[in-house]
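Two folds, back to back.
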Amino acid sequence: MAKAVFINLPISNLKASMAFYAALGFTNKPQFTDDNAACMVWSDAIYVMLHSTGSWRRFTQRPIPPSTSSEVMLALSLDSIKEVDAMNELAAANGGTADINPKQDLGFMYSRALTDPDGHIWEPFWMDPAAVSG
């Protein structure tokens, strides 16, 4: 199996979370989806597992942080500033919160942070390919 990242998130409403991630461009992988959890695919190497509380508890008994806390920020690279702006707008229109932090425009990199309906922080960003190559 190729190396991949599986991000596991506790969520409060599976259908609402699936709809949110689908609106942002994730696709559902039905083989890993049931009434308690869903696999949403960003790319060939990035999968987001959405877990209801019962499903989450199969893996850990640690407390689920409140939606106002910040346990991690997950960054997704996009192909343009326009795509970053569009993802932020889609988040706000589909149950998330846009611009939880100020926009960052460093010239060679641009980002905006958003949250999903459960407060998980995502930061879509664009970076100038010339800056990446040095």
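---
second:
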Amino acid sequence: MSGDVLWLIIALPAAGSLLCLALPSSRAVLAATAAGVPAIAAASGVVVWRVFAHGPLMTTGRWLLLDALSAYHLAVMMLVFALSSIFARVFFGAEAAPLSRRRARRFGALWYGALSAMALVVLSNNLAIMWVGVEATTLLTAFLICLQVSPASLEATWKYLIVCSVGVAFAFMGTLLVASAAASAGLEPAQFLNWTYVHGIASQLDPKVIKLAFIFLLVGYGTKAGLAPLHSWLPDAHSQAPAPVSALFSGFLLNTALYCLMRFLPIVETATGGDGWGRGLLIFFGIFSILLAAAFILAQHDLKRLLAYHSVEHLGIIAVGLGLGPLGSFAALFHTLNHSVCKALGFFSAGRIGQIYGTHDMRRITGALKAHALWGAGLFGGFLALIGLAPFAIFLSEFLIIKAAAETRAYGTLVLFLLGAGIVFVGALRHAIDMAWGTPPAAPAPRRASLIEGLIVVAPLALLVILGLWMPQPFQDMLSSAARILAGAAQ
């Protein structure tokens, strides 16, 4: 298989974006996204399998690279996009005011455009083009937040654009500093921002310049990833966007920014002598994110804002894992998948429960299991998985992070991690029980769930349980291969 096939993973969604602008009805647009995105995901899965079976793929000119780390993230991205695309047809089909043709076309074009931009981030071997991809995701996804126009959604869109654009500007400065260090180390101009070249001479880079660069990168990409205290845009955007968009934001958009930091991490660690300086910064911001999210989770009343603060918590957990060495990196990558699947289910369920109850105010949502057995079970089961209850896979990935902290004697990190996780467990479980049980308010009976809705709920829960009880050897090998790149292994 030629490496140039990677261009198709970016081009096909771009073509889908143009197609949606020409479709004659909202139903046709939603059908095109529900069928087209899973088809692209399936084709991408074949390419991902090829990478793990036979090694990395690179395009002519070294512009795009699909190695174990990027292949793993591509697989997670396609899974989240496929599930969210199918759910979008269910969600918008159940709206009291269906999408107009104009809004549906805008949704489809931006949806496919966001897929293309995120694929560019994951596949790029050029650090500047990776930055361009992140900026493109900001511009394309911003107008998905206000798809259903209201003063609150417009405010959330504006805040998202301003905060993330400022953050990504910091990341641009960090990228330029890395290019400057690469130039001083003797790379040719065409190689300054090529990840494979920079990674190859990382030991020759000026450690002071690289440290300064990583601070800019962490502030910049950390803002887009929603790490505290740079997360101010996230609760508003997640709560105001339509549920499929919220699922995409939390399920993978945040991961794209954290993926960029993962790309720089082995360069930083090698350049600074492997003393753990960069990993220490990730642990600091990760623990801060967990503790801040825990405090806000206790006081939340809006269901989607509650899930948004869980995103801050879990991105913090991933950052802590990345800072704890090889086992922690393995666990962080595993947690990336677990969180993405679980949070997608959480927002799917929150969206449908919000439609059934007419509100996302948790004080008015009671007896969800009786009001709608399927989506009530999805909401309750999603929360149990999200807080790390056994046997769900998040329990296992969090346990591996705890084990990594113990093995590296990071006892302060371990204590703070357990404190934050304990607060979240108790607070979120209380919210989940209050919503799931009790007597539902008098309301018209919702329509009967379809087979597709059943699969959307059952499949993520089943995956989380299976991976919590049994990790297949090929999947372990995928995680190990990706973790080795984070440890600085050569291609």
